Every structure is written in C-alpha cells, then in structure tokens.
Amino acid sequence: MSCDFIRPALPAVQRLSPYQPGKPEAELRRELGLAHIVKLASNENPLGCSPRATAAMQAALTDIARYPDGNGYALKHALASRFALSPDCITLGNGSNDVLELLGRAYLGPGRHAVFSEHAFAVYPLVVQAVGAEARVAPALATDSAMPYGHDLAAFHQRIDQDTRLVFIANPNNPTGTWLSSAQLEDFLAAVPPQTLVVIDEAYCEYAEKPDYASVAPWLSRWPNLVVLRTFSKAYGLAGLRVGYALSHPEVADILNRVRQPFNVNSLGLCAAEAALEDSEFLDVSCTVNRQGMAQLHAACERLGLRVLPSAANFLCIDLARPGVPIFERLLQHGVIVRPVAGYGLPNALRVTVGTEAENQHFITALTEVLAAA
Ligand SMILES: Cc1ncc(COP(=O)(O)O)c(C=O)c1O
To answer: Per-domain residue ranges for the chain?
Structure first.
C-alpha cells in the first residue's frame, strides 16, 4: 500500500524546511571517534550555568512527579521585580523560541504578514510560514556599510503598512552579531503604526557592551506595541532547560497565554531560571570571559587576514572569502564544530561561538591548519 502523508499536510507546512541546529558533540564523536571535541556552534555559555541554578534543580528533583506551576508564579514575580513591571506583562516560554511561535499563532495567519530582515534568526521565517502568513523580508545593509549585513530599518519601513501584525528584530542579530543603537530603535518605533507589534529579540543582550547599545525593556510603558524577548539559554547557560520569556503590554501577554500549552515551562527550568537570575556574579564572569574570548578570536582572524562582522554578541561571523561549508567540514576532522551559515544567505561565512580561552585556541589552531591546507 502506498502512502502519502506529505500532501495532506497544510500547504504552508509542506513548504517549510526544518531548522538546522548546531551539530551535537556526541554525533561527531560517534562519526569520527575523536577524544577531544570543541563545540562552538550554538552560542551556548562555555562556563555552563550558575551553581545556584544547579542547586535549585537538585532540590526540585524530589518533587518531579508533580506538574510544574503552570503560571510560573515565582519566576514571573522575580522577573517582574527585576524589570519593575507587573507580572501580567510577562509570558514564559519553553525557550524564547516557544514565545516566537505563540506570537505567530496568535497574531499571524493566511492573509496576514510579518516583516523581518535578511540574514535574521532562522526561526522568524519558520514561525511566519508555518501559519500560512506572508514573510516580508527587508534586505540587509550593504557589505561596505558601517554595519555590514546589519538590519536596514529604512527597508523595514518600506515593507510595513497599517496591516503589518508583527515585526521581528534581533538585537544583537544572530548569525551576524550586528546590532542597532537605541537611537535607531527609538526613531523606528516612533514611525511604526501603533497596532503593529514590534518584537525586539534580545537573546544576546547580556553580552552587548557597545556604548550605543541598550535594552529597550525600559521603553515598555512608552510603546504599548513593543514586545521584548529574552532567554536563559545564552549568558545564563540554561539552553538545555528551555526557558525564555516575553515582556509586553498585559493584553499581548493575555493573548499569548490563551494559546500556550498549560505547562509549557518545566519545573526544573522554572526554579533554575529563578536562581540564575539572582546570580549576577556568574553573569559578570560570563561576560568577562566572552569579552576576552572575543578579543582572542578577533586577533587571530586579523593574523589570518580574515574579515569579521561587527559583533555585540557571544559569537563572531567570519567571512572566509571562500565557501564556508568545506572549511566547516575540515574543521570537524580537527574536532571543532562551528556553524556554517549558507542557509542564512551567507555562503562564505562561518559563525563561531566564543568559548573558553582553550576552546578558542583549539579552534584557531585548527582553522590555521585548515586554511593553510586549503
Ligand atoms: C536571536 C535568537 N532569538 C531566539 C533564540 C532562541 O533561543 P531559546 O529558544 O533557546 O530561548 C535564539 C537561539 O539561538 C536566537 O539566536
């Protein structure tokens, strides 16, 4: 009996290409049997997570037979006090990825559209396409601009109209690392129709130390159509637990709450995130290691004559001036996993997460050898 389970699927879903995650370390170990592998492919924190988060999870293990608190009371209250907002302004998600999907399900659909940039985070087109909405893609800034491949807000404006439901802006952006200044975002928000939700995805904001960068979270009372996305997956080192959140107008949070799964954040994630939030020391050390590692990688790229894109995040997008995939594959042979970004429209680039000093050095040595042999 011949079966076809593709064509009965929703047409928009049939057209989707699945998200390609970074190659897991265990997969490379299985394939090549290498003893030492360095994974710099998914922008995770190389230091792990706060010991307070680990202790909180260990304590919570005794209660694992129970469902989590479906309203995330304690974490929401901790976040509310951190941002001086009411808990009604907070939506918790199974990673910020979950919140992106909730936004798509609640605000998009056939006949509706969203605007985002070329070379932006890969989940934006997935979220838009999955619900049959139209993706309007703003071309990125030119390669010779001050912010090469960065978001071009004038191009966003050309694609936004009274019917635009969502705008996605990653700041800093993944995979480029480029960022928008608060002055640019302020002018942008002032000119967006008031009913268009502007989602500023600040997944990497803890790392962003550029003088013109600032989180827009303090602007929530000023712009009711602003949605700020944050995650515990990056600087807080909890990627495996999947906890992210949105800060928004309470009515947006109310709508998202109607479409989320009842227990979308698990018990360990809830208590670990709450504990991690309090550990500013761990966050400071993580940012210092990132700053030093960024300098180490920059210096190596300069020595190798490679151009890097400006980055305010915990990764660097390196322009190899030749196809990135073959170099990625050769780096795997050296036990180094980075991220090819051809799927993001950057075929000559590789994205490298900033690791510990030793991990960065392993990558630099491998890249030097691979390029010399290429
Ligand atoms: C810009 C951006 N937004 C959101 C996410 C999703 O993160 P998570 O679902 O782990 O919170 C990522 C992950 O890489 C990202 O790079």
So the answer is: 21-48+281-373, 51-278
CA distance linking residue 169 with residue 166, whole number of Å: 10
Separation CA 21–CA 44 (nearest Å): 12
Atom of ligand 1 nearest to the CA of 175: 16
Q: Is the CB of 243 under 6 A from ligand 1?
A: no
Distance 12 CA to ligand 1 centre (A): 23
Question: For the domain bounded by 21-48+281-373, which CATH number is listed?
Answer: 3.90.1150.10
CA distance 104 to 35: 42
Handedness of CA 163, 165, 169, 174 (dihedral sign): negative
CATH of region 51-278, choose from 3.60.20.40, 3.40.640.10, 3.40.50.2020, 3.30.360.10? 3.40.640.10
pTM of the model: 0.96
User: Ligand 1 atom closest to Cα of 43?
Assistant: 14
205-215 per-position pLDDT tens digit = 999 999 999 99
Nearest atom, ligand 1, residue 97 CA: 9
Same CATH fold, 51-278 and 21-48+281-373?
Answer: no
Residues 60-89: tens digit of each pLDDT = 999 999 999 999 999 999 999 999 999 999
